[in-house]
Amino acid sequence: ESTIAVRVHVSPLPADRILIELIDISELHRVERVRRDFVANVSHELKTPVGALQLLTEALADAVDDPQAAARFTARIQHESARMARLVSELLELSRLQGAEPLPRFEPVPVERIITEAIDRGRTAATAKDIELVREGETGVTVSGSESQLATAVGNLIGNAIAYSPQDTTVTIRVGEARGWAKISVIDEGIGIAPDDIDRIFERFYRADPARSRATGGTGLGLAIVKHIAGNHAGRVEVSSMPGNGSVFTLLLPSVAVPAQETAPDVDEM
Ligand code: ADP
């Protein structure tokens, strides 16, 4: 679908002439629509917890004589406000990544360090569901970039793997390197993703199952953040999955042959 604008020029042409200009403004329209949708989505996402908080605080005020009910409402208030805080911080993170600020200073980062940090962030959620986090594959692979951003990206993938898997399963983080690319795969035994959804899950706020995502505390922004971080590092993220058969998310990043300090010349050679 395209949108064409028509511009008619009369002057400075001779009196019997007009010039009709056809301009393709489809892209302009698309960008404008994406922006409008985004604002509508953010408003909707914020309205839900704010509405819940209003109702819950009213209920809490009415429950002064019922400590058990009051405790229940308080727990839900904490849950909703934590989700809202996460939503706001992920929105800020996303807008930072979308180029408002310069790229982070790039330095060699051992993949093992990224994974250790990412696993640490997912540990509590994994323990709560008896999910085992297993590391395997190559060691000594190094990439170039921002350690904290890359740990966020891998952490989001691990967080999703845990959120969309049943109890007592395994999430494997596998590292490989081939032809100049470092591969970090996060493999789960969870619910998987339908072919119709798989192309869209990296869009902001797209969820295959909105109710499930909300129940796990998801914001719908995690994979959009991963995609931006991969892009900022000249890399990309890939996914393969089958409903009921688990998913594999792979972060591909240009690898660095050797950490800088090991390539420094000997003092004798200088
Ligand atoms: P959310 O906060 O909803 O998890 P994400 O951007 O991280 O948002 O993911 C978008 C959607 O992709 C999720 O709502 C879910 O439907 C799907 N998804 C992401 N990771 C997985 C996974 N490991 N297994 C199954 N579905 C997943």
UniProtKB/TrEMBL annotation:
<dbReference type="GO" id="GO:0005524">
    <property type="term" value="F:ATP binding"/>
</dbReference>
<keyword id="KW-0597">Phosphoprotein</keyword>
<keyword id="KW-0902">Two-component regulatory system</keyword>
<feature type="domain" description="Histidine kinase">
    <location>
        <begin position="41"/>
        <end position="257"/>
    </location>
</feature>
<dbReference type="GO" id="GO:0000155">
    <property type="term" value="F:phosphorelay sensor kinase activity"/>
</dbReference>
<dbReference type="GO" id="GO:0005886">
    <property type="term" value="C:plasma membrane"/>
</dbReference>
<dbReference type="GO" id="GO:0004721">
    <property type="term" value="F:phosphoprotein phosphatase activity"/>
</dbReference>
<keyword id="KW-0067">ATP-binding</keyword>
<keyword id="KW-0472">Membrane</keyword>
<keyword id="KW-1003">Cell membrane</keyword>
<keyword id="KW-0547">Nucleotide-binding</keyword>
<protein>
    <recommendedName>
        <fullName>Sensor-like histidine kinase SenX3</fullName>
        <ecNumber>2.7.13.3</ecNumber>
    </recommendedName>
</protein>
<dbReference type="GO" id="GO:0016036">
    <property type="term" value="P:cellular response to phosphate starvation"/>
</dbReference>
<keyword id="KW-0808">Transferase</keyword>
<keyword id="KW-0418">Kinase</keyword>
